[in-house]
Structures are given as C-alpha cells and as structure tokens.
Amino acid sequence: MALLSIRDLSVKQGETLALDGLNLAINEGELVALIGHNGAGKSTLMKTMMGLLDFSKGEIVLKNYNLSEDPLNYKRRVVYIPEQPFLLTELTVYQHFQLYIDSYQRDEQVLTPVIEHYLQQFEIQDKRDAFPLSLSKGMRQKVQLICGLLIDADLLIIDEPFIGLDVYAQRTLVNVLTDKKACGQTILLTTHQFDQLDTIMDRYVMLHEGKVIEEGSDYQLDALKRRFD
Ligand SMILES: Nc1ncnc2c1ncn2[C@@H]1O[C@H](COP(=O)(O)OP(=O)(O)OP(=O)(O)O)[C@@H](O)[C@H]1O
C-alpha cells in the first residue's frame, strides 16, 4: 500500500481549475520530484496537501489518515517547506526552531544537537539570536529549511528547495536529503533544477494543466532534461 494516495483531486485557484482530477501515489522511502512548466499546478498541489487550500473533489490519504476526515492526525505527519520563507519578525532564528519543535510535539533536548549540526552545515551558526529582518534572503531560506528538516515526519514536502541557496548550501541540502532518504524518509519536492536531482531522485512526476501527464524513473532524467532545455 502506498504511503500517500491522492485520488481524483480537483482544486480551483480563483477562476482557474489548477488541479483537475489529479491522481498520485507515493511509496514509503521514495524521493519523488514533481516537475512541470510554470503554472502546471505544482505549488497548488503542495499547498492542498498541507490543508492550506480547499478542494472541491477527491481525497488525500496518508497512511490511514484522510486529510478531510482527520486533519489533525494527517497534518502532524507531514512537514512542508514553502518556496517563500514564512518567518515571524518578532522571533529569533533559534525561537523559530523551538516553535516548530513545539508545534510537532517533539523533544527540544533531543533535537538540540541536530539544530547545532544544521546551523553549522548551512553556515548560519552565528545567526541563532538574529531576527529575520536582519537576515539575507538566502539565510531566511536556510532557517525555513532547518525548521522543516528538524522534524522527522512521515512525509517531507519541499517547494523549490534549491532556489535562493548558494552552491555550497545547495550541495549541503543534497547531502542532507541523501542522508534522510537513507534513513527511510519519504520526500516530495518540486524543482526546475534537474541537475541537483541526479543522485537522489527515484521517480519524477510531470504535471500539466493540473493533471499528471507522465511519470518516469531517474534513468529517464537525461532525456527529460533535453526536453526542458
Ligand atoms: N492565488 C491565485 N489566484 C488565482 N490563480 C492562481 C493563484 N495561484 C495559482 N493560480 C493559478 O493556478 C494554476 C497553477 O499554479 P501553481 O502556482 O500551482 O503552478 P506551479 O506549477 O507551482 O508554477 P511555478 O513553476 O510557476 O511555481 C496557474 O494557472 C495559476 O495561474
């Protein structure tokens, strides 16, 4: 049985039918890249999976938890890292980590060394007491990433993880995702940067006008890259 099943999902964004009867299944431990041209429906799908957008038709089920029927149990098993960092001006970097840990009911003591590890890895160890307004765009992106990476949820969803990161941070993130995958983490991400995915992706799913139009393995990635060039 798939870890996540999405069946016949339709979502409107304003007057646009952004998702149109979409079906998708993701197995435990898979890293799936959601791809497609601008406006294909990738972000809409991710936001809907997090319960941030209503859907008019279909269902989303993670394990046995149906998003519509049991949103609390569903949502505490999913972590979403948005493309645009969403940080609170009144909280320091470290307080964001504490807020995340608290909201997912994890143990801060257990995660303290993990926070330190990520602060070092992403080279923002001197920013722990800084407020978001004093951070660069890339630094804010790193803070948002660390918040999500701290939580070992059943499903990690990342919207455009590489945008805004320098090459070192991009490489660090690929290493972190590789480690997480080796530990059995299931990951769904969107990207336009296929080169980053060569070593970590199991499968791509291509959206077009709110539908899945193609799926393939990492072996087919080269042909795909040529089509997108
Ligand atoms: N807030 C909104 N109001 C109205 N229409 C929207 C809104 N957000 C998205 N849409 C429309 O929904 C469709 C899907 O957009 P979505 O942002 O999901 O695409 P995407 O695949 O994530 O694109 P990109 O690669 O540019 O991020 C598009 O036709 C878009 O114009």
UniProtKB/TrEMBL annotation:
SMART domains found in the cross-reference section: AAA (SM00382)
UniProt cross-references to CDD domains, sorted A to Z: ABC_DR_subfamily_A
Originating organism: Streptohalobacillus salinus
Highest taxon above the source species: Bacteria
Sorted UniProt keywords: ATP-binding, Nucleotide-binding, Transport
Pfam families in UniProt: ABC_tran
Gene Ontology MF: a single term: ATP hydrolysis activity
InterPro entries: AAA+_ATPase, ABC_transporter-like_ATP-bd, ABC_transporter-like_CS, ABC_Transporter_VariousFunc, P-loop_NTPase
The protein's name in its UniProt record: ABC-2 type transport system ATP-binding protein
Residues in ABC transporter domain copies: 4-228
